[in-house]
Design brief:
Layout lengths: L12 H19 L6 H8 L3 H7 L3 H12 L10 H16 L4 H12 L3 H23 L3 H22 L5 H15 L1
Helix pairs in contact: 1-2, 1-4, 4-6, 4-7, 5-8, 5-9, 6-7, 7-8
Length: about 180
């Protein structure tokens, strides 16, 4: 009789995360942030709501992890800080334009305005990894990188909220030039 290790019941963790993250973004895209409840996300993922709550204690925590996954990996390979930042801006514009991502990003920020615990989650789990990577890649201090993040994310989400479409073309080039002035 051979002894084999029993695997945990259910889907593998990475498969479950991909399923839930995909369902989250689809639900956000189709119904909007406010109507994308945990019940609806669970139904879209074909899993029990309790399965989601075992991994993410709130909608905000789920969205933070979903966005963290959506924005991986940050393109930091370029010969100069200016080229790194320009590549990151193009990457951010493209990602925010993906179905559900801009809606999730904007919605979770609105919720965080009145929820200190969610602000902490967004700060530590979403913003800090990118801030630290950009500080290292750009050789810039924390305050400067935070300003760059604020200008970019705020501008891109504002455009999407006001027009329903991501920023494109000439405006991305102008935004990139404006932000690059901070590094010069």
């Amino acid at each position: 009789m051979s002894v084999s290790s029993a695997s945990a019941p259910g889907r593998p963790r990475s498969d479950l995360h991909a399923t839930v993250f995909g369902a989250t973004l689809r639900t956000m895209h189709e119904l909007g942030y406010a109507n994308a409840t945990m019940d609806r996300i669970a139904a879209a993922a074909g899993i029990a709501k309790t399965t989601i709550y075992r991994r993410w204690p709130s909608k905000g925590a789920l969205i933070a992890d979903c966005l963290l996954e959506a924005f991986r990996p940050l393109p930091l390979e370029a010969p100069t800080p200016e080229e790194i930042l320009a590549g990151c801006i193009r990457f951010l514009v493209a990602k925010i334009g993906e179905p559900g991502v801009g809606v999730a990003f904007a919605g979770v920020f609105v919720d965080a305005m009145s929820d200190p615990a969610l602000r902490e989650i967004l700060s530590t789990r979403l913003q800090d990894p990118y801030r630290l990577a950009l500080q290292d890649a750009l050789g810039e201090p924390e305050e400067r990188v935070l300003l760059i993040i604020d200008v970019l994310v705020g501008t891109l989400l504002h455009r999407m909220g006001m027009t329903g479409a991501p920023m494109g073309g000439t405006d991305v080039a102008v935004l990139t030039e404006m932000v690059l002035r901070v590094l010069r």
